[in-house]
Write a structure and sequence with these properties.
Radius of gyration: 15 Å
Number of domains: 1
Pfam families: F420H2_quin_red
Catalytic activity: oxidized coenzyme F420-(gamma-L-Glu)(n) + a quinol + H(+) = reduced coenzyme F420-(gamma-L-Glu)(n) + a quinone
Structural class: alpha+beta
Shape: globular
CATH topology: Pnp Oxidase, Chain A
Organism: Novosphingobium album (ex Liu et al. 2023)
Helix content: 25-40%
InterPro entries: F420H2_quin_Rdtase (IPR004378), Split_barrel_FMN-bd (IPR012349)
Number of helices: 4
Protein name: Nitroreductase/quinone reductase family protein
Number of strands: 8
Length: 171
Amino acid sequence: MSDDSSAAIRDQRKDWATEHREMYLGSGGAKGHIMDITAVGGRAFATHCMVKYTGRKSGKVFITPLCYGDIGGEVVIVASKGGADHHPAWYLNIREQAEVEFQVATQAFRATWREPAGAEREKVWAFMVDNFPFYADYQKATDRIIPLVMMQAIAEIPVFRPEDATGIRQF
């Protein structure tokens, strides 16, 4: 998939993504954790977390909602960017940080993160594709290997608030 066609997908989903983020943040996580994403090839009860990170260039704080899976107590997110030929900004930003913060429903955590490799990556990828079938299509659309990020909670923190974000995610 070209970056242009990926941009078209993001433009179509921009309003939904913005509304989703605002609903999740505005409710303290009571709403937005479970969403019906069948319209985009997902499941009716798809799970979403929010990831908070600092921009590597801007120094601004961003909060991005993402689909997630849970494997062995680690929260897994996928840096798909709709099958674009380059990585999403959130992924590039967290690669520059030793820790990341994430929120699942009404609980937020400071966490370490890692990228699985080899047989573990294959197992985690299969799990994520089983839960979110569109990831298989995204991988077919690009030559890059779509990264997986596994986050391990190390401390509970206050839930995210809208005012925590000093930057707005660019779609």
